Amino acid sequence: MKQSAANGGKVFASFFKKKRLLPLLLLGACSLITQPKPAPQYVVGEPYQADGVWRYPREDFALNDTGLATVYDRRGLTAAGEVFDASALTAAHPTLQLPALARITNLENGRQILVRINDRGPEAATRSLGLSRRAAELLDAPGTTGLRVRIQVQEPESRRMAGETRQEPAAIAVAAAPSSKIQAESLAPPTGAAQSARVQLAVARPAPQSSNAGPEPAAVPLRLTEEYWQTTPRPGQLAIECGSFSRPEYANVQRNRLAGFGARVTTDYYAPRDRAFIVRLGPFADIATAEAALRRALPMVPDARIVVE
Predict the structure, then answer these.
(1) Quick check: 35 and 96 in contact, CB under 8 A?
(2) Coil, helix or strand for 211?
(3) What SS3 class is residue 138?
């Protein structure tokens, strides 16, 4: 019995040592896993499909839009080649050029922040923006899945970001023709050449610079400073936008196509002049109703989306 107890004690001690070594072994194995290496770059990208809807990325340095935002998460690198960090003020957009700087307004409480848009998303076709966890917290909307927001791209800063991350193609070397093989002959100027020269000189002169041009915007850091601004809440009503047009007759054609959905033509204070006449459905009482209506409209209008009026 004594020998058996001794053997049992040795077995237990050996097992205990193994249990103590297990976390160390796991830690060592984790250290061998290669972490994603950031490679920030300028991205527009090809069309892609998400949630059954085709998205068409494009440059839009003057975007001023509304929609529903949600908190999103991911691992590894963003679509712009930056490391995703849920504690940083970042966001994902389905079509904007990446990266971009945007002012996001929580229309429900009036709070504004700046975010670095550096990723594609969110996945749901009914959402216009994905917010990092920290961005949602600073907007005083943690865990929200359908937050009414306004998205305003900051053009000067976003253009600088594009210039700093855009990878230009290498210049192609073109050899000049040897001068020894070129023959030239001086001819008398034709009639009216002097007047033509004056005209060309006037056209060639550079246009005068604007006296109120702003200074070069400061570089946008990868991690933005945490600050917010308070404005007046404008929660608004939910609607579905089904196209915007420069002329009312074009908008009426789209409205007639969607007459069975109760389409109407309206205008928006923030809409640019070439898209002043807007076809919308609604308004809708809640997010669920708006989402259901959007799903019905998407087969006829693939780029339809939920907006806040």
Answers:
(1) no
(2) coil
(3) helix
**226 and 290 both lie in a single domain:** no
CATH of residue 95's domain is 2.40.40.10
- Supply 80's token pair: 């712009």
Concatenating the DSSP letter of every residue in 117-185 gives EEE---SSTT-SEEE-HHHHHHTT-TT-SSEEEEEEE-HHHHHHHHHHH--PPPPPP-PPPPGGG----
End of a domain among 235, 256, 291? 235
- 257 by DSSP, 3-state: which? helix
Mean pLDDT of the chain: 83
Determine if residue 203 is left, alpha or beta; phi over 0 gives left, psi from -120 to 50 gives alpha, anything else beta: alpha
pLDDT in tens, 246-291: 999 999 999 999 999 999 999 988 888 888 999 999 999 999 999 9
Residue 30 within a domain: no
Nearest to 71 by CA among 152, 144, 151, 149: 144
Residues 230 and 303 in one domain: no
pLDDT tens per residue, range 61-91:
999 999 999 999 999 999 999 999 999 999 9
Instruction: Tell me which H or E stretch contains 233.
Output: none
Structural domain range at position 245:
237-309
In which residue are the tokens 């700046």 written? 114
**Cβ–Cβ contacts within 10 Å for residue 116, how many?**
26
User: Could you tell me how far CA 201 lies from the centroid of its own chain?
Assistant: 44
- The single residue listed with the structure tokens 């160390």 is 24
N-terminal to C-terminal alpha carbon distance within the chain: 84
